[in-house]
Amino acid sequence: MPHDPSASPSPVAEGTPFRCGYVALVGRPNTGKSTLLNQLLGQMLSITADRAQTTRHRIQGVLSRPHAQLILVDSPGYQTQRINPLNKILNRTAQSVGQQADVVVLVTEAGRWRRQDDEILGWLKGDAPVIVALNKIDQLRNVNEVLPLIAQVHEAHPGLAAIVPICARNGQGIEALLDAIESNLPEGEAIYGEDELTDRPERFFAAEIVREKLFRLLGEELPYESTVVIDRFEEEGNLRRIAATIIVERRAHKPIVLGHGGERIKRIASEARQDMERMFDGKVFLTLWVQVRSGWAKDAAHLRSYGYE
Ligand SMILES: Nc1nc2c(ncn2[C@@H]2O[C@H](COP(=O)(O)OP(=O)(O)OP(=O)(O)O)[C@@H](O)[C@H]2O)c(=O)[nH]1
């Protein structure tokens, strides 16, 4: 809406503007991305299943702050890094992530700057603002040891939005990192309303874990229009009984997901169950089905037209 200078200023114009956008964590293996994500997860909300499953992003959670909504997304490179040669992945990550995210956080290690870190930064140039998180500062003898590295990275990559030393394991520096991310997000209203967010993320994560296994084990064969629905999620003490359905659009997709003699679906189920047991810290009985439901993708396309993706 055009600004009318004669109108009395809105509260937003007077105060801090609200910011909202997609944030991606990238980096070479073992730098602490998962640990950082877990550190953030404690503060994050998840999205109700319908909305999350319309997307090609893997949304990991939404962080609501007084003046910002941060939507953490996974990058394709991050998802596939275990089944692809490193360079191909980093390249792919860098190529796609700038288009996917409004802010990119390169997670690397304070004591171990590598040539690959420079390469990733080179690839990321020109897209979204990039913040470098120098992780594992607890491994330094003295935290001031990080200062020369900050100067060095700053000189080599003057376009960086921020360089923030952190310890993903104990949470040190995380607030500063969040502030840096927030100030680099575009101004805009929250994408997710309160009614779309839940503070009971387990169900959501169960679906996400199955989706991740599908992605990892099917790779290029993964039918574009597939989704995962949690049919049942029951807790009995430390045991969770979870039933999930992988929905595909065409009959021909079903054998791809099942694999020869059902081998693939068994592996998806077994790996997903192990991840869930780790995440939920308890026993999991997982039942997995594959169902053909023509037409569901049209609904998804309809939801996408709300502007998501
Ligand atoms: N000392 C220390 N170790 C950390 C910190 N953050 C992560 N680590 C350790 O670094 C190792 C790798 O951490 P992950 O979080 O799995 O790293 P990642 O980048 O997700 O790894 P990939 O999944 O291989 O890409 C683990 O052993 C973590 O415990 C930290 O702040 N300090």
TrEMBL record:
Domain KH type-2 residues, every copy: 210-294
GO cellular component, one term: cytosol
Family to which this protein belongs: Belongs to the TRAFAC class TrmE-Era-EngA-EngB-Septin-like GTPase superfamily. Era GTPase family.
Domain Era-type G: 19-187
Role played: An essential GTPase that binds both GDP and GTP, with rapid nucleotide exchange. Plays a role in 16S rRNA processing and 30S ribosomal subunit biogenesis and possibly also in cell cycle regulation and energy metabolism.
Sequence segments annotated as region (G5): 166-168
Region described as G2: spans on this chain: 53-57
Protein name from the UniProt record: GTPase Era
Gene that this sequence comes from: era
Originating organism: Lautropia mirabilis ATCC 51599
Lineage, uppermost ranks: Bacteria, Pseudomonadati, Pseudomonadota, Betaproteobacteria, Burkholderiales
